[in-house]
Specification:
2 copies of one chain form a homodimer. By secondary structure, chain A is α/β, with parallel strands linked by helices. The first copy, chain A, has helices at 15-26, 28-35, 66-71, 86-97, 107-124, 140-147, 162-174, 178-187, 196-199, 202-216, 235-243, 305-324, 368-378, 408-419, and strands at 6-11, 39-45, 62-63, 75-80, 101-104, 128-129, 153-159, 218-219, 226-227, 246-257, 260-271, 283-290, 294-301, 342-343, 353-363, 383-388, 396-403, 406-407, 424-433.
């Protein structure tokens, strides 16, 4: 095998694909030193091979017939970077069927079809790597699967949607409203024209599903994760958070207790001096709490062409080293044997106990606070702080309440009841607190 | 091989050894699920097998004759946790010679004898892993060797001495003097009775040598790294730092430009809103700047029985997975072929360009500031801020100067010249600034 190059084929040449091309060509020498053999991109499969592209890719590499790359016996690794689910899944399955190792950055694909693909990889005795699917360039899955593998994870707290974190950071730092910050994110390329996938928390939920699958060796559909986005967070909430010593972040949270897994994505208040609170702009971070290692955080760029490509190339290097060493499947995709995967036992959201920030929007008249506190107390919700300051136009005012640990079920009941009161002029804002 | 246990031998049962024993016994089931086969500790080599110990270790496991574990053909992995260099090195070489894979947490051993051991591992075709040697439980070496392997690293900034970070944090938060904070660290077990190894920066320099070796595929003796500790940092400096928007940390820094490596350990002022500034108490963090991935930070517990043991067990899991997959040496100890290692080309400290914080301790009389600024200007050192406030007893005063980018060589000349002035009553403090 010595010095014989390892040949790969890429499917897709968009943002991430271009980054992968750049790294593999610009770092050719470095990679050869680190792997022991050179990596050669033999094929790049794209829909329109004749399209003008900024990269100087030899025409002879470009191919539109994807099947031809699966049939090429020289190809050892297929890198799927086309995005989408249905077609991408077909290609990954075909690649595995033809005994190719697969690298993908496709989080939706892994979140939705992971289990099927892991079984196919197992059957083909080939590697399936997807480091770039969570946290972009941050080697977060590898840390989980290898470095921290001696630990049971008590909890995972993750900032894994760069768009949401960028918007929340801008809102706070520039004292902007949500809609203004969203437009800025769009103009800078940190948010899509249709941003709903990011700002509704769906992207974060898909990534959390992958983290949970790997951390606990379970199958978990992203749609079973309780998911709230940042749309309902106002500048006012960020300002109140600061007053109480908190920052608001869109957190993806998993906790494991007695075999049950808590899984949720929602805006969360966290102490302003915590490491996660220091994660600014479009950056991502994942905080693992392992039973032996304690709190371990990984931070970096969660998106973008080059950071994401860096993670894809990390996977290519791992597989290439294994090929050179004459082994495949040294590590299963999730770090555990795929046959041992079982459906996750998810704790219903109703069972959650948390501290809460509640902002009631009320007309300022006598008895309002008495009524609110009475309803909360009837539902065993104990108050730790109350804050009311000044007036808005028309005698409207925000009453902010922080609670001690309370049951989510009771909280939701209380909010419904309070929202029905005549003095409430707009729905109550609820943000959970993690200390 | 299926389900046949992998048998290991441990040398040493101190702080880290006890932690490793705990993880391997308490997480037995979890590890078997993650590796595919159970891990069994067959031997624990200690100097006094009959000594009373808190752990319930079967007497039949304990052995005082270390040679017997090398001669046992069933042992596949030897875990060296005795510490020290001379004896530990002998054991590691013996283990490799007898075809055992080796895991060690011994930073001094790797920093001082790494090259020789890597060659021995290569010859034996066995793995030599040492994740725990840098950053305790944080999987920092694995990230460097695998996840970020597609990058050339522009720089590494590391807080890798927990003792120093604890002392600096205490000084700042409790407004304590160095000596008081040191005593507190000692009483809490965060500093040794003789703390010089930690507070003089030697421990950090050894770890930086390992990081540099892995990042750049070079050999670098720790004693070639410019090393300053935190002893000369006073509470006053931390207070001034805050005034200018900085925090003071003991940083281990490596930068690579045009094939030359800058390597230094010293107290450093960093922006107070940076991720590294948020690293409190005894925690560690390493910030990599890769040419494609950008800034990536790993944070966690850099010492202690269980975090360090977590890293050791991560290494054991990696090797065990490789054994199960029928491969050894999938990844070379430094991530590059040991034959390609060459001595590091270190940039002389004199060549450094940096911004500086200077605190002159002078008698308050007319012309002092004029003389200081004149000397600085003669040496092409341009000032960005000056601060002088109030008096100390006897007309003594601190004059604080922040410089623009200046040459280290000129700075040192200026300080010598200024320290010779009659108005200077105590040596000038210099802290480098990284923005």
């Amino acid at each position: 095998m010595k010095n014989k190059s390892i040949k790969i084929a890429m499917i897709g040449l968009g943002t991430v694909g271009s980054g992968v091309w750049k790294i593999l060509t610009q770092q050719r020498q470095l990679l050869e030193q680190r792997i022991g053999v050179p990596i050669e991109i033999k094929w790049v499969a794209v829909k329109s091979p004749r399209k003008k592209r900024p990269l100087a890719i030899p025409k002879t590499c470009m191919v539109s017939q994807i099947n031809s790359i699966f049939l090429d016996p020289e190809i050892q690794i297929v890198v799927e970077l086309m995005g989408g689910v249905t077609e991408a899944k077909e290609h990954v399955l075909q690649a595995l069927k033809h005994q190719k190792h697969v690298v993908t950055a496709n989080k939706a694909l892994i979140a939705e079809c992971g289990s099927e693909l892991f079984h196919a990889a197992r059957e083909a005795k080939r590697d399936l790597c997807f480091e770039a699917a969570v946290g972009g360039g941050i080697p977060v899955l590898r840390a989980l699967r290898e470095g921290l593998a001696g630990n049971h994870l008590n909890s995972i707290y993750a900032i894994i949607n760069g768009t949401s974190n960028f918007i929340l950071t801008e809102m706070f730092q520039q004292q902007m409203d949500f809609s203004v910050a969203l437009k800025k994110a769009q103009s800078l390329g940190f948010a899509e024209a249709d941003p709903s996938f990011d700002i509704q928390g769906i992207d974060a939920a898909q990534k959390l599903a992958i983290l949970i699958a790997m951390a606990y060796g379970v199958e978990i559909p992203a749609q079973n994760i309780h998911t709230e986005g940042i749309e309902s967070v106002s500048l006012l909430d960020l300002q109140y958070a600061q007053r109480f010593g908190y920052q608001v972040k869109l957190l993806a949270i998993a906790k494991s207790q007695q075999g049950k897994i808590q899984a949720r994505v929602h805006p969360t208040m966290i102490p302003e001096n915590s490491m996660l609170a220091a994660v600014q702009a479009e950056n991502n971070a994942v905080l693992f709490d392992g039973d032996f290692v304690g709190e371990t955080l990984l931070y970096g760029k969660g998106a973008g062409s080059e950071p994401t490509a860096s993670a894809v190339v990390g996977d290519i290097i791992e597989i290439a080293r294994n090929i050179k060493a004459g082994v495949s499947e040294a590590v299963a995709p999730l770090g555990v044997n795929v046959e041992s995967l079982r459906p996750a036992r998810i704790e219903p959201m109703d069972m959650l106990k948390s501290e809460y920030y509640l902002r009631f929007q009320v007309t300022d008249r006598p008895g309002v606070l008495a009524k609110i506190t009475q309803i909360l107390s009837q539902l065993q919700i104990s108050i730790s702080s109350v804050y009311q300051h000044g007036h808005e136009a028309g005698g409207k005012v925000s009453v902010v309440v922080l609670t001690h640990l309370a049951k989510e079920k009771n909280l939701q009941k209380a909010i419904i009841k309070i929202n029905q009161q005549s003095f409430v002029y707009a729905p109550t804002t609820l943000i959970r607190i993690e200390d």
